[in-house]
Amino acid sequence: MGISVGQHGSSMSEPNVVPLIDVLLVLIIIFMAITPTTPTGMPALVPQPPPKNQKQPPPDNTTIVVQVASDGKVMINQTPVSWDQLGPQLSDVFKTRADKTAFVKGEDDTSFGYVAHAIDIMRGAGITNVGLITAKMEEGQ
């Protein structure tokens, strides 16, 4: 604002804050522009159990379930497979399918590293939707 005159013969100076506010607004805009967006994880599909009074439908034979045991062994629909062959076999199964959905199931004491590695291989094989199956979900809880 300038100078405010108080008593006769003395002057009182006030700082001009308008340029300071302009600088702060520019800094806020800069920091908002360079702030990274929040990383998002992989979307997961979780099959919902049927209602308690309804009978569970028979499993669909086109559903692919990758099972990871606690000792690190892996199976595709009850068929044992090695970790090296998991990706190529899943690619062969899903290359002609329009629906690229599969499920991964780990035992309760399975290391998360095994399950994450299986999901990574499944994504690399072209599966776009990976669902998770838990023991409680199989029991209908």
Describe this structure in words.
The structure is a single chain. This protein has 141 residues and is an alpha/beta fold. It folds into 2 domains: 3-34, no CATH class; 44-138, Nucleotidyltransferase, domain 5, CATH 3.30.420. The chain has 4 helices and 8 strands; from the N terminus they run E-E-H-E-E-E-E-H-E-H-E-H. The strands form 2 sheets. The protein has a 6-stranded mixed beta sheet with strand order 3-8-7-4-5-6. The longest helix is centred in the first third of the chain and has 17 residues, at 18-34. It is elongated. The termini are far apart. The model has no long low-confidence stretch (mean pLDDT 79).
Provide a quick synopsis of the model.
With 141 residues, the protein is an alpha/beta fold.
The CATH class of the largest domain = Alpha Beta
Number of strands: 8
Strand order of the largest sheet: 3-8-7-4-5-6
What series of H and E elements makes up the topology? EEHEEEEHEHEH
Mean pLDDT: 79
For the record, give the distance between the C-alpha atoms at the N and C termini, rounded to a whole number: 70 Å
How many distinct helices?
4
Low-confidence stretches: none
User: From the alpha-carbon coordinates, what is the Rg to the nearest angstrom?
Assistant: 30 Å
Q: Kindly give the count of domains.
A: 2
